[in-house]
Amino acid sequence: MSEAPMTSAVCFHDQHYTLDIGQDFLDDAIAGLLDSPKWASPKYFYDYRGSQLFDAICNQPEYYLTRAEEQVLADRAGDIAEVIGENATLIELGSGASRKVRTLLEAVKPRHYLGVDISRDFLIQSTERLAADYPWLDVHAAWADFTSPMHLPSGLDAGGRPVVFFPGSSIGNFTPALARMLLSNLANMLPPGGGLLIGVDRMKDREVLEQAYNDAAGVTAAFNRNLLTRYEIELGSDIDPDQFEHRAFLNEAEQRIEMHLVSRKAQTVALGGLRIPFDAGESIHTENSYKYSDEDFKTLAAHAGFESRALWHDPDRLFSVHYFERGSTLEFLPESLIPG
């Protein structure tokens, strides 16, 4: 791992050092478009432009998730600080603009902060802003794909309790099986007693859910199509993002919102030396957002070795914020008990 000062106030940790990022992107893109049905990995949404667009999504009036979670964090900041304790190391996954974490920084006063994101430039900007705004805080940035096993950088694995902060119901972007794997990776990264503060969206009325992913301003549509722009620019494809329509809907049986890019016409696109056909109306499944009951998510986390310690909701009970601790042993529940 490459570790070097990024600025005078931020220490940068390169955890992409074993990866050929461009080749991985191309391999994943080809695998998804050759499959039936077609799919794309949502982790590739988050180049610099994609991160900007997601930040804009969070400000759309239809997107209740950010407002509800921020209200929970603001209303319960004192309670959260009490369960985390003093001199903590706060590890934010998918840190993006690091907007929500500011409420925690002011309440918890951690010793260290580590922002983890796959978008390097966006990560650098956001952690530099945090370092400037919180001069008392030891700020670190890890350029990493947190869907793979991680370890705490040197210097952050001692002292107060390490606590992973995973906001935005991003856990919902993973199938239940992959979510279990991710949570297990986090449990393995943390020592016994290490914490997990995680935002989880709840099931609710279809209209509320579908409006949240189909904002009137079209920001979510632009975010979805930006993935195809990356195929054009970075992978040399001749795919035209404007020839694909954004579509998001509730799959009630699976308890998830699905996002798709639907081909407006029959067409063939070039990618990686291949010619890939699309039928009119054929879609690329780009993302899921699973919704959980409180008990189902507690069961999911328990399977990964986490013990529930606290649970908070916004006044309308649209959203939940859970606090778990990594147990003393990683004893998994029988597969039959796992939701999904």
From TrEMBL:
Pfam families: Methyltransf_33 (PF10017)
EC number(s) on file: 2.1.1.44
UniProt xrefs under SUPFAM superfamilies: S-adenosyl-L-methionine-dependent methyltransferases
EC top class, as a word: transferase
All residue ranges annotated as the Histidine-specific methyltransferase SAM-dependent domain in the record: 27-325
Keywords: Methyltransferase, Transferase
InterPro entries given in the database record: EgtD, EgtD_Methyltrsf_superfamily, MeTrfase_dom, MeTrfase_EgtD-like, SAM-dependent_MTases_sf
GO terms assigned for molecular function: L-histidine N(alpha)-methyltransferase activity
GO biological process: methylation
Top-level division of the source organism's lineage: Bacteria
Protein name: L-histidine N(Alpha)-methyltransferase
Organism, scientific name: Larsenimonas suaedae
